Amino acid sequence: MSAEIGSQASQAPAAAGTVAPSERGYVVTRLDRLSRGALVGFAALVVLLAFVPFSFGSSTQNTLTGILLLVAMASLWNLLAGYAGLISFGQQAFLGVGAYSVLVLTRSGMNGYVAIPFAALIALVIAVPLSVALFRTRGAYFAIATWVVAEAFRLLVITIPALGGGEGASLPTALDYSPTVRTALTYWASLVVAVASLAAIWFLMRSRTGLDAGAVRDDELAASSLGVGTDRARRIPYLVSAAGFGAVGAVIFLNALRVEPASIFSVNYSANAFFMTVIGGVGTIEGPVVGALVFYALQEFLSGWGEWYLVLLGVVAIAVMLFMPEGLWGRLSRRFDLVLFPIGYRLRQRGGSRDKR
Amino acid sequence: MRWLDAVIHGILLGGAYALFAAGLSLMFGVMRIVNLAHGALAVVGAYLCSEGIRRLGLPAAVAIVLALPIMAAFGYALQRLLFDRTAKSGEFATPLVTFALSIIIANVLLAAFTSDVRSIPVGDIGTASLDITSTTSVGWVSVIVFVLAVGILGGVQLFLSRTQPGRIIRATADDQSTVRLVGVNNHQVFGAVTAFAVLTATIAGISTGIQSSFDPNSGVTLLLFAFEAVVIGGLGSLWGTLVGGVLLGVSQTVAAEIDPQYALLAGHGVFLVFLLFRPRGLFPGTWQG
Fold first, then answer.
1. Does A338 touch chain B (CB under 8 A)?
2. Which of A28, B116, B170, B209 has the most C-beta neighbours closer than 10 Å?
3. How confident is the model over B152-173, as pLDDT tens digits?
């Protein structure tokens, strides 16, 4: 039986011919052979990536750090938009919270890398009261309200001279590592943040909360009439996303060694996360990762284009939303029936070909 | 006396915010579209006007009058070619598409006109002021904008409640598919509403350009204030929007009296307080029932 569940089972015409449909029955599967293989492959990739600093120079590591942070941001944005139905253009608020938390913690003597989880925790704690206010709004109004919050944070930081005001601040000399070690540590930090974000999203979305969040996204009224706590189903993804963005903000600061309110609170971070997610495919684990890779490649090829690069991205995002709303990965996934990291369940005829979820 | 000054200036500033917000409120009321490019479109209007004066050497009044129909036509085309299509792709598509549109517009403006701050020169009227008391005076332009805002909001309210086209718009807002049964082309109605919304945004954008200054990214600030005015006033209430705009304007100018760097922060703060304690705003839903 377990062999049947795990098998691709697409080449079983003989079995299907001999067994009457009524006797075949159905099996419910989640992880099939393909997705188990993908999990093993993913684990192997993470191990390989962990060894990069031992065999590659700092430029490769910097490139990968950039990509990993993009992957984390796109995935965390997708956790809101794709799974919880919350569009946020204000996630940069938590990038700023994370970065400035590291600034304050390192000033009081903490190691910058040790400060990353604390930065995530601070972002999470700040997100709790914010969610109370923001969840009064829905849809597009939520999106703009989150943006207002990020703007308010930026304006607030500017008024605080101790945080460097509008000029920004540099990392105190708490990081007395050689540049080589510092590059490697920052790279590892970004790897941990990206993998932890993906793992958190994966486990969260496969849990009861993930099911609740999906139900609320699809039909809030119906979900609440079935006893789903709609606020809770939204709040948990929102808090996880906030903590993740806090950690990303911390790493961005440790990487750049300098934080400025105008740049860390820039709406472009949310815009880019949105572009990556939409182009890759909303509501899948794989989509934002694909989107982040495409985004990075475009960035490299079109770096000389200046403003026109963002114009092109905007046009592509609109075109994808209108003509291919499932995104690149969604299209591939549907075409080849390919789900590497399944969130939902599939119903499959025992011994028959794979069925849709 | 300087507090009274601040309050008067705040009220007038609120008129400009309400003018911005009217289009946002109207589009949401009729089509359930929240247009995140509303601020960016206002900035396009301001650039159009400014370019007319700079490049073509048009008198300011002519440039303003020419910019309005061009922007209205642009709004109509935007609705018919993009927003109508977007609405079919589900409720999530509209905020995302209009947000992407605002990014596109801001970056096209950046590429075309650089990030230099500019303003619209209108000659003496731009700096002329009206003395209210011996110590308090206000700019003529801000008075004109406030009167325009009240006039437009009142006019729209009357138009919607008293005229046949207004009834058609309200009926379309209530039930898109039923109005089609009685022979209304709802897409024409939508196009007209968006054209009008972009027109009012352009007026507000140009008045901002005359009174202070703008750059390609000014649309964001304008959008956020317009949105805040709508939420504070209550969704669907045009007079509420005016009150919301005035409340925002006053909180900003009064906070600026304490310290200029608190001005914008105070506006956002008032909005967040409303979100927490009165999320439906001051006058929720009066015209759409």
1. no
2. B209
3. 988 888 888 888 888 888 888 8
